[in-house]
Amino acid sequence: MSTSIRKLFCEALATTALGAAQNSPATSKIGPKGFFLEGGGEDQLLQTFLSDEHRSLDSQHITIERSLSRGLWLDSEKVVEVTTQKGVCWATHGYMCNGKLCLTVEEAVFLMESGNLEVFSAGLPMSIHQAYHTLIQPHNLQQYQVYAYLKRAGYLVQKRTYSDSSVLEAWRCRIPFRKSHLGPPNYRLIIARVSDPFPTNTRLHQLSQLTPQAPLWCAVVDGSNLTFYALENSEMITI
User: Among 91-105, 138-152, 158-172, where is mean pLDDT lowest?
Assistant: First the structure.
């Protein structure tokens, strides 16, 4: 198994099977490698993750056909093109591209995990396991963690790419709600692992000027733990 796939498994375990790791005789530890265990190493961590995945795959998964949308993975563009829309989730997901409704990889995986979307690749439906391998690459797993956290907290979240950086923009959902007229976001977030160097003042200034009416936060990912910092005043905040 390649190093990148092993790393993805290990980091995914920090969010999906952390409880099992904490109850094991080994001592959990978070550090520059992201997440690993003393006493068992990455092989034990990987085996725990695989065992949990097998149990999940063996269990019965029930979805309602009339509310299941479908999409096609476009590998060259790294997006999912929605081919069948069902349900009410499209009020807060997707964007129009060349007259077609598309999803970012974060949106697609989140909707798959929520039981609202089935994604096809090469004529076959993807499992959620396959979607993590294909859509969520090891380098943007942390971005998906933050995206999913904000979605579950009730925010509308969109990813924007500025130059060489991706920023998550978050809006508090309100009624009446119109996706086409969101107004400025309530928050903009850059994503960093706990072992990453902190952005330079120059970079922070550039990002803050993109949409100056919205506060800039930094979401720091430490295994399964997320901490949010308000960068204008260096104040730690909780949402």
Answer: 158-172
Torsion from C-alpha of 8, 9, 14, 16, nearest 10 degrees:
120
Across the range 69-82, mean pLDDT stands at 95
Nearest alpha carbon to residue 149 among 7, 15, 9, 5 = 15
108 in helix, strand or coil? helix
User: Where is pLDDT greater, at 28 or 110?
Assistant: 110
Q: Are 189 and 25 in contact (CB under 8 A)?
A: no
pLDDT at 59: 56
Q: Which residue has the tokens 């056909």?
A: 65
Cα–Cα nearest to 239, from 153, 164, 167: 153
Q: Please name every residue paired with 124 in a beta bridge, in sequence order, or none if there are none.
A: 121
Q: Which residues, other chains included, contact 9 with Cβ-Cβ below 8 Å and sequence gap of 6+?
A: 45, 46, 49, 50
